[in-house]
Structure formats: structure tokens, C-alpha cells
Amino acid sequence: MAYRTATAEPDVLASRGTKLCLIMTSLWLSYVALLPPATGYEVSLLDAVHPVARGLFVVALLCGVLVLVRAAMVDVQPRYWLGSAGCLIVAYAGYFALPLAREYVLYGRFSYDVLVHLGLIDDILETGVLSDLLYPATHLLSVALTVLAGMQPESTVALLGFWFKVLLIAGIVLFVRSHAENHSLALLTFVAAMPIFFTSNRFSLAPWLFGLTLLPVALYIVHRFAADSVRRTAYPFSVLAVALIIYHPISAFYTFTAATVLLGVVALSNRSATRGWVPDLRGVGLVCSGFAGLLGWHVHHGTVDGNVRSSIVSLVTMEAGGGAETATRAAEVNYTLEQLLFTFVIPNWGVLFLYFALAGIATMLIGYRLLRRRATEFDGHVAVQVALGGVLTVAFLVIQLYGSSIIRSAQYLILFAIPAVGVLLWSLIETHGRHQGQRRRVVTAVVLALLVASLGGATIYSTTTAYSENTHLTAASTTGYSWHLETKDRTEPTYTDMSRDVFAYYEYGYADADALIRSDEHVSAHTYLSPHLGYHESPTVRSWLPADGYIVIRTADLVWHEAEPEWRHDDLVRITGDDYDALAQDHTANRIYSNGEVRIWQTRHQ
């Protein structure tokens, strides 16, 4: 039973907190709506936001979080916690709309997969052809928004990112409320779900992330069907299973695996409660049908066959995974441990490590309760899922089985760390609410306050690091590169300082770009520019290039290092102002285009 204190004071505090949250959210949205378009290249999107406006956003988030925590502890009228929850969602709407307010063409880089996805979307809009696409759900959803709402496909990126963030929060809260049957725990889970967990992936077209977002909803349906015998939930599960399968195969696999774990926990709970152990074949049938659909849709596809073979080879050869690769790169630089920690680890994964640590503590607490036979079925389910997520994360980080990034490797653990943190919060509140000695109540209150402060800080910090620097395409940059692709001699290569170039998919559409690339047309740039354009070793740029071609330099290539601490600039700067001036005077390179953000030279051997 949830612990609640019925007094008049909480409503006064909740009322004031909700009103302040509403005022701050309104002012924040007004600022975003009036934010002028960017007039040039910006190293950081958030630096363009006035500090006072960022303060409005922070206060709105903190007020909403505090009201929800208060509502979990004491009796608060629903209008207050509902109003605060709504303000939190609306405040995030303004946050996700920042790239649109600055009128960026896209949040991303010339190397981001979102350009490939937009190329696929363009194919569907222009020809109605789906191409040889393994998971078309995200693309079809974007097409539907484009057609029905009259939006540009690029604009749907921010909208979809926001709505799937909302769906993640709503799905987790719905599942917790249904399974745990604890209103307070559901509110605390809402608080735990507030940070931006998947960094810049949250603002992009990421089919794997959109599919993963549906996992809590699927668990809710399976639990209702298996444990509560609500037969009509079989129909929404069928629809959701189809959506999962065509969103992303890994997300679908994770979802059906999590559902299998849930059924196992329910069965064990029934047995331990001396209610007899009769496997619920209906629930098993749901999950088996999901796995069968996943296998039937994807097994024939060449991409899946190649990925399976690659994973088997990686497992046999123990090829290093994303974690090992990241550790190796970190060891190669001459930075101190403190520098690595505060400029690399914490900005990228600090919030995740906090949640992993808290989820680990929650799991140990649940284990202790299980030994004392005081844990609920929901507690046991969360502990098992966190443990499984930890095993999967370690496996994918150590061995190259799926994905190379830490976030993609740990996505299962990230998802279930959220309800685990909610369980930890509720355990502290429940402990504090019992009749105990004054000293223990004070200690519990201090720990609870520190934990709430940590979660509030994690939420705020995640919003300051989620938008990566130098990660946007402006109208000038896309116009300049489009001009280059339209006018260039495709028999000659393009040399850039980009890490990867997939802009051709966005420019031509996926099918046409793929055909051009397969026919050895030079529509993708080569990452070939030497540091300082080679002038530290050669008198001309053409003397070290393998063949005549085009040199493309963007403003980002010249200023991107400004986002990093000054002590790192010497290691990061590849093209200086002096190098750029030398290129302007180089007789082997003729500048043929410039629009302020994109400069293009054509080289000729002399």
C-alpha cells in the first residue's frame, strides 16, 4: 500500500509549484517561438539560446519534477501532478523544436544515417517504391506526416523524435502502473524517465530507437493478457508486433525477449504463491507468434544473412566490440585521467553511468527483499530485466556482435534502468514513511533528497549535452553541396575533411544514389585531406593528391574545434586560417564556388 500523508499543506506547495512550472513553461515556449533564424554557421545550437531562456527551461523542469515527487509522497490533488506532468512534456516540445526555430535544414552532419533515411523517404514520395528496405515503418510514418500535414520530410525528424520521447515516458509509466499497481511508483518512474538518455539519436530518424520505445507498451499488453486474462489485448499486440518487426529487427528481438522474461517471472510468482504452476499458453502463444513473425519477415533478407554471419565470425574470433574500441582510442591520446573523465566520459555517458549505478543498487535491494520474501512480482521482474540488460551490454561491448557505439550496445539496460530507479526512489519514500527512530528518518530523508537532486541534475545535464556541437546542416551548407553534386564532373573525386559523406542519398534519393555509387560515379567524397592541407610537407595541394579533383571545405572544418576546451585545440585543429589562405594562393587549385559556408576548389596538375 502506498504511503500517503493527508494534510492541507501539500496542496499549497503543489499548487505553487505547478503554477510556477506553468509560467516558466509558457515563457520558455514564447522564447522558442520568437527565436530568430540562424544568420550563419553556429558551433553550438544551445549557445544560441540566451542564458535566461535556458534558465526558464531548467526551472520548469525542476518544478515539474518536484511536484511529481511530492505527489508520490503525500496526497496531492490530481490536477496538480497532471498539470506539472503536462508542463514537462510541453517544455520538452520547445526543446525539441530548437533546430526548427533556428531554421536548420536538419539536425545532423554530412555523415549521418538520417540523410540515407531521408533519401529512402524521398523515393517513396516520388515513385511510391519502397526499395529493398528491411525496416520501413519509420519511413512510412514520415511519409504519412509529410502528406497529411503538408510538412517537409526534414521537419518530421524533430516531430517524430519528440513524440517517441513522449511515447517512451507514457509506455513505461503505463506498464509500471498496471504491473505494480502503485500510483506513487508510477509517478516516480515518470520522474526517472525525464532525462534525454540516447543523446543525439533522440533528435534523428533512428528506427532502432523508435522500435525500442514500443517495448514498454508491448510488455503492458502481454502482462494484461497473461496475468490479468484480458483477452482483447491480443489484437493490439498483433498490431504492435507487426509495427515492431518493421521498425527494426533488433528492437523487435529485444521486445519479444523481454516479454518472454515477463512471462517467466509471472509463472514463477504464481508458483511461489502456491497458486499452482500452470503455464499460460496464451501468453506464450503471443510471444511465439512475435518471434515467428520476426523470423519470417527478416530471414530471407540478404542484409540479415550478412549480419548473422558477421556476428558468428565475431563471436568465434572474439573481435573487440564498441567498448574495447573506445577504450583503445582513449588510451592512445596523451590526456590525463581527469581530462578524459570530464571532457569525454561524463559528457557522453555520465547520465547513463549514474542510472546504471542506481539500477544496480536497486537490483541488490530487490535481491535482499527476495531473500526476506518481501519483494513484489514487479520488483522481481525489474531486477531480472536489469540483470539481463547488464549481461547483454557487457557482451556487446566486449565482442562485436551488434553495433559499435556504447549507447546502442546498452539500449536494453538503459530502458530497464528507468523503472529500477523508480523502485529505488519508492523504497526510500516507503522506508521514510514508516514509524521509526528519528535518526533513521533523518538519514533516509537526506539520502532521498540527494537522490532526487541527482535525478533533477541528471535531467538538466542531459539537456545540455544531448545536442552535440557542430551537428546541424544549414541552408547554405546544403545548397553549396547540392550545387557541387549537380555541376561536378563525376569522373573526378571530391576530397573533404569529412569523416563520411552520404549526402548523395539525400540529394538524389536512395535508389539513384546507390546506382551511381555502384557504377563508380564519384558522388561521395573521399576523406583524404591531410592535416593543414599538406602545406607543412608540400608546396602545393595538388602535389600530394592522388588525382585531379575537387576540394570542399566547410566552415565547420575551420571552427569545429571551438566547441572543445582550449587545451585540446592543438591536437584537434586540422585546417587553420593560414592553411586556408595558402590554398587561396595555390596555383594548382582554382576556387570555383563559395557561399560563405561551403568553398569549392578544382585542382589541376601543373
From TrEMBL:
Source organism, top-level taxon: Archaea
Protein name (Swiss-Prot/TrEMBL): Glycosyltransferase RgtA/B/C/D-like domain-containing protein
Keywords attached to this entry: Membrane, Transmembrane, Transmembrane helix
Transmembrane helix is among the record's keywords: yes
Species per Swiss-Prot/TrEMBL record: Natronolimnobius baerhuensis
Membrane-spanning segments: 20-40, 52-73, 80-98, 157-176, 183-199, 205-222, 229-247, 349-370, 382-403, 409-429, 441-461
